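Lecture 7 notes. Example A: sequence first, then its structure tokens.
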Amino acid sequence: GQNEAQHANLTIFLVSVLFFICNGTFYNYINLENMQKPSTADSRGNTKALLMTVKFTLPLLNAAFFPLIIILRKPSLKMKIKELIKTKSSPYQQPAISGLR
């Protein structure tokens, strides 16, 4: 009911904030870079290095944190991850045949 709706709303809010931080920062930097034309070759190099860092780092952060938010917000997924960590076994590991142990 009400509690599930609040839980879903908070999850959507967190994912939206992550998206706007990662993408908004990138697009704001692009706009600033286009408005300010550096006069020296050295500052152009620094600007390009920063742009490349922002261009590749922020989408990777978004890709890393999005599933993390989903997993941590869903209790059943959180429990499965805790069990996997606790048992230190792969989710794809086949169970051993009981007679061969």
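Example B, a different protein, same format:
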Amino acid sequence: MDQDWEPVVVRKKVKKPGSSAAANEARRAGGEVESVRKYAAGTNKHTATGPVVDARRLDDETDASSHQTVPLTLALAIQQGRQGKGWTQKQLAAKICEKAVVVQSYEQGKAIPNNAIIRKMEKALGVRLPRPPKKKKVDDA
């Protein structure tokens, strides 16, 4: 009876083709290595609402002098509703899944009105908030 003295590998670590170890090994061997970095890869960016949408609205604005901001009636209604519940700005922001800065800018009247955020505030506070008037579009035709 012959015995088999060949080594048996139970687990072999396979290098992924995109890993840095495989790239370093290819560089050492003298091969060509191409690496591409993806834009915002692996981040959890909030793109549905927020600064990107607001910036786009500002870019689309034809009048360069000013843009629409939250009216004083809406700012006061948000503030009164929040204080009626006994919440801080941070607590309201957590309830509507936004940052505290967003609530702060709405209460100061500096934010660009976003109906989605106003709707979330209405739902969280349980009150009907006054909506800002719609902008009139000017036709050049």
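Note on Example B: The first helix runs from residue 20 to 29. Helices lie at 20-29, 51-60, 72-85, 89-95, 100-108, 115-125.
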